[in-house]
């Protein structure tokens, strides 16, 4: 739970900050995300009919949807994010029946680009957090803000590098907790939200309502396609960690749970969910691969979602603390993408695919005003650097012809083990 918690709460915080939502709405998003993640984790681990892979998987809100969610939310608000997520989840539900064909659209060059773009798109968010944010009264880039962010970052690095077991796995959450205590001692935290928040509350389905903009559904559908491929890689790594053979039907059950779970999460006012790769690392680290143990993680997340006061505490975390932890978290996503790209065959064709797609994705990320003169439909679909990078990579992979590779004597002597790509994904996880 600790390994997943940082990622689960980060998504509603990023989206809420980008849309400038009031604190009480961000609290509702956080609790909905915890509740939805918990319930879908239990279903994924235990299985309900054809839904659920029945392996130790922790589900949580995914960063792959952040870019599309912000783009949709800026134009239509939170109801459109949830409505688009619900409608587009059909892509994943139906796609679970056609995984071999969909997987061909996303070779490792494309997957590596997508993972890298997710990290690159989120780093500016962490930088703004570290500087103190743009809220009224905040001093952007003040020495105090940067000092706290640096302190948290160094703490997380030390815990990752020198910690063992659960300390290393939960380094981000522990680092945030230490930074939080530092800010409490400095008198930087206002506990008004915590005092006003109810201790216990039942879930509120359709709390924000729903709208279904066509452009938003298209943008979310693309994000779902990307997530399907990421989740497949995570399942393959999980199979290696648990000595389980990943057959087509097994993968289909897991992908189907992602789709059905995201639809359920949308009804519960939560962003979409997907399988968390970092928890595969926890399975390898601890040697505990019981799906029943991991299902208890789902129970704990579910219970956490029933206590709004916990979400209120999360909202009081100062932005520099989030920035120090977020910089580490998002940079690790970049690292995972780079590791995937490093195992891609070094050809001129693959080089063009990676360079152009990352360049186009960064163009939208760094200069979002680039699309300001285009129709609203185009801005919503292509407003996310992750979406642009993924679409350009898939298009180039389909259009550019593959040329046969001439092997040298050295190439013939050195054989690449068939597990090379699987190993890279496992290391990334």
Structure description:
- The protein has helices spanning 2-18, 23-46, 66-76, 78-95, 99-104, 108-131, 143-162, 166-169, 171-185, 192-196, 214-242, 248-267, 278-286, 291-304, 308-315, 319-342, 348-366, 376-382, 385-399, 409-413, 420-428, and strands spanning 59-61, 273-275.
- With 429 residues, it is mainly alpha-helical.
- The protein has one domain (2-402, 422-428).
- The chain is globular.
- Mean pLDDT is 88; it is low at 409-429.
- Belongs to the nucleobase:cation symporter-2 (NCS2) (TC 2.A.40) family.
- InterPro entries: NCS2 (IPR006043), UacT-like (IPR017588), Xan_ur_permease (IPR006042).
- It is found in: Cell membrane.
- The chain crosses the membrane at residues 26-43, 55-74, 80-98, 105-127, 139-160, 167-188, 208-226, 293-315, 321-340, 352-370, 382-400.
Shape descriptor reads globular
* CA-based gyration radius: 21 Å
Class computed from helices, strands and strand pairing: mainly alpha
Give the helix tally.
Answer: 21
